[in-house]
Amino acid sequence: MRGPAVAGWLLVALCGVTGLYCLLRMRRCAGGRRREAGSEAVMGLGMAVMGVPAVVVAPPEWSWAVYATVFGAASVRAAWALRGSGPGGHHLHHLVGSLAMVYMAVPAAGSAAGGVHAGHIGHVGHAGGGVPLVTGALLAYYAVWVLRAGTRLVPLAATASGPAAAGEGEPELADACRLVMAVAMLAMLCTV
């Protein structure tokens, strides 16, 4: 296993573990945090499935329609949640992420039907190309998001010590999981 296949399996592992953690977090949370953890679990597990190297497991042709439907529904849900929460926060990020997944699935459906298999990172590499302006905008969004999220985590880790910080690990770990998914999204978008 070399090159894109290794990167694809790393993407699968990171997103799969992140998605499973979000499922576990969903069981411990209530209300809005529970829905947020559920959305993140869907995103992480969906990214893990889309990241499986196509040279190892060729996805069925209908899988792209399933991806587009699942993440289209997640987009509608995030947009609905966004309407009452204002322009910032996790709902906007979930909306952008869900739309990015639809964006990657839709061109992949067309090329999978045409038999195009590029063998890039995961199944997403089947897409063969998206709209450069949209891909560039999504790459810029995620690059900025990753840098901002990373800088917010560094001070937390540096100042967290002693018994008082022990209860703060949960939000910090959730933020780290979001960061992992954003980095994975950058990798997936690079193959579009």
Structural summary, described in words:
By secondary structure, this protein is mainly alpha-helical. Helix content is 74%, strand content 0%. It is built from seven helices and no strands. The protein is globular, with a radius of gyration of 17 Å. Mean pLDDT is 81; it is low at 115-121 and 163-168.
Report a brief summary of the structure:
The protein is an all-alpha fold. The protein has helices at 4-28, 31-51, 63-82, 90-113, 132-159, 162-165, 169-189. Helix 1 packs antiparallel against helix 2, helix 2 (31-51) packs parallel to helix 7 and helix 3 runs antiparallel to helix 4.
Rounded Rg: 17 Å
Q: Give the overall average pLDDT.
A: 81
Low-confidence stretches: 115-121, 163-168
| Biggest sheet record | none
The helix fraction, in percent, is over 70%
* N-to-C series of helices and strands: HHHHHHH
Topology, element by element:
Elements: H1 4-28, H2 31-51, H3 63-82, H4 90-113, H5 132-159, H6 162-165, H7 169-189
Helix pairs in contact: 1-2, 1-7, 2-4, 2-7, 3-4, 5-7
Key traits:
192 residues; mainly alpha
